[in-house]
Each structure stands twice: as C-alpha cells, then as structure tokens.
C-alpha cells in the first residue's frame, strides 16, 4: 500500500538504484514525512494493544491504507477525535502525482502551500518576486489558476456530498457525514468511523454516494466541465421550450 501511493517514476528510479535522481524530489519528502509522522501520531494517540512491534505495524497499516486510498482495514476502524482529524487529512491528501492513489494529491498540496506563502509575502511586500517550484520545476500562473479552481471544486463536492448525506440520514453526525462523503469521493474504501459502517442509506444517500464515487475516479475538471455543459444544454432547451409555448399561445 505504501508503494501504491508513490509516483511510478520514483519506483522505477529506485528499481534502477539511481537514488540521486530522487533526492531533490520534495513531493517524495512530504509523502514520507506524512507517512512516518502519521505512524508516530497514530501510535501515540491511538488505543493500540499488544507489543511495541505489533502496535507500530498496526499504525503503519492504517496510515498506509489512508494515504494510498486503498481502503484496507485490519481491525477496529474507529478513532478518537484527534486521530480522526489526522485520518481525514491523510485520506484527503492521498498519494503522489503519477500514482494509482486518489485524493487531492501531495504535489497539489505543496503547490497550494507555496502559493499561500507567496500571497502572504506579497501582502506585506508588493515588490517581492517569488517563483513557485515543485520538485525543481517552476509552476506557471496558468497552472496556479487551475489549482485554485481544483481546490474550490474539491472542497465544494465534499461539502455538498456531506450535506446531501446528512439530509438522507439525520442520525449521522456532521463528522460522520464528512467522512462518508470524503471516503466515497476519493474512493478510499470504508469510512473511518464505525458509526457509518452499518448505516443504511435511502435513495438520496445511495445516489449521492454513487455520483461521488463515479466523479472521484474521473478527473475533477473534465467532470465539472461536462456537468456545466450539460446544465447549459438543459437551460437552453428549457428556454426554447418556453419560447415556443409562448409563440403557440399567441397564435391561438
């Protein structure tokens, strides 16, 4: 599962024993930091039992499952409130670019953090010139515009999904609805709370989860563009229908 979240190019370089080519990859550094940091936090805050080695293996399994969005479960999948927040962050981030994993993406997270830092710098120093680089490559302004749109759509879809799921099942808490919506959207397997594993959903909930899982396996921007064009087509057809009906009424 850990390898499933890595960039396939990274795995290829490792297989060829050319470690020098990946030393400057800051996306890999953040991925490793999130993995090992998550293991430590899970081990410290989680209610694991057994020997030290067993606890570390259990924590590593959970973090690898969340970060790679593979969704495998070894045993108890319910966490305390603090660990649940970390688990949601790992699940939402997902794997590296060029990996089978879903989620927001480690490379987008790096670019977003650097973009926010640049904007804060410009706020207090308008003449500051700071280029945004990810793994040594400069990110142009057009890509940053796409990143902002992707981030807004990503958050909107999860928020709308959790809202519709809450309408379908009023017994769910807000954190459970967010966990269900996020797990479906990133196709990360079962939700991270036990309360949602045995939950039954109605027509609205099942339809919402189906759409989230379908859109989650597609690229967000093309899917959003397709939905926009479909809505525009429906709107034009409705306008044509209304105008033709008015014309027929005037003739009569």
Could you characterize the architecture of this molecule?
By secondary structure, the chain is an all-alpha fold. It has 3 domains: 1-113, no CATH class; 140-217, no CATH class; 219-252. It contains 9 helices and 2 strands; from the N terminus they run αααααββαααα. The protein has helices at 8-15, 26-45, 52-67, 81-93, 106-124, 141-168, 174-185, 203-216, 220-251; strands at 133-134, 137-138. Helix 2 (26-45) runs antiparallel to helix 4 and helix 6 packs across helix 7. The radius of gyration is 22 Å and the shape is globular. It starts with 7 loop residues before the first helix and ends with a helix.
Fraction in helix: 55-70%
Category from helices, strands and their pairing: mainly alpha
- Any idea what the radius of gyration is? 22 Å
Biggest pleated-sheet summary: 2 strands, antiparallel
Overall pLDDT metric: 82
Q: Number of domains in the coordinates? A: 3
How would you name the oligomeric state of the polypeptide chains in this document?
single chain
The geometry reads as: globular
Beta-strand content bin? under 5%
> Low-confidence segments, ≥5 residues, pLDDT <50?
none
Give the terminus-to-terminus CA distance: 69 Å
Count of helical regions: 9
Can you count the beta strands? 2
Order of helices and strands: HHHHHEEHHHH
Q: What topology, given as strand order, has the largest sheet? A: 1-2
């Amino acid at each position: 599962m850990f390898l499933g979240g890595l960039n396939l190019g990274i795995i290829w370089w490792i297989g060829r024993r050319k470690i020098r080519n990946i030393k400057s990859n800051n996306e890999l550094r953040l991925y490793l930091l999130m993995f090992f940091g998550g293991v430590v936090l899970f081990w410290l805050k989680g209610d694991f039992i057994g020997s030290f080695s067993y606890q570390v293996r259990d924590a590593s399994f959970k973090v690898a499952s969340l970060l790679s969005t593979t969704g495998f479960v070894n045993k108890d999948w319910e966490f305390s409130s603090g660990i649940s927040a970390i688990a949601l962050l790992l699940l939402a981030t997902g794997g590296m670019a060029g990996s089978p994993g879903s989620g927001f993406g480690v490379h987008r997270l790096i670019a977003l953090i650097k973009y926010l830092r640049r904007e804060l710098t410009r706020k207090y120093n308008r003449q500051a010139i700071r280029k945004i680089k990810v793994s040594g490559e400069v990110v142009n302004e057009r890509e940053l515009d796409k990143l902002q749109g992707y981030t807004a759509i990503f958050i909107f879809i999860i928020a709308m999904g959790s809202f519709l799921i809450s309408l379908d099942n009023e017994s769910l808490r807000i954190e459970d609805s967010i966990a269900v919506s996020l797990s479906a959207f990133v196709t990360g397997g079962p939700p991270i709370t036990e309360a949602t594993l045995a939950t039954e959903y109605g027509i609205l909930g099942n339809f919402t989860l189906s759409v989230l899982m379908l859109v989650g396996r597609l690229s967000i921007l093309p899917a959003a563009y397709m939905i926009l064009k479909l809505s525009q087509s429906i709107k034009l057809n409705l306008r044509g229908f209304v105008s033709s009906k008015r014309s027929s009424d005037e003739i009569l």
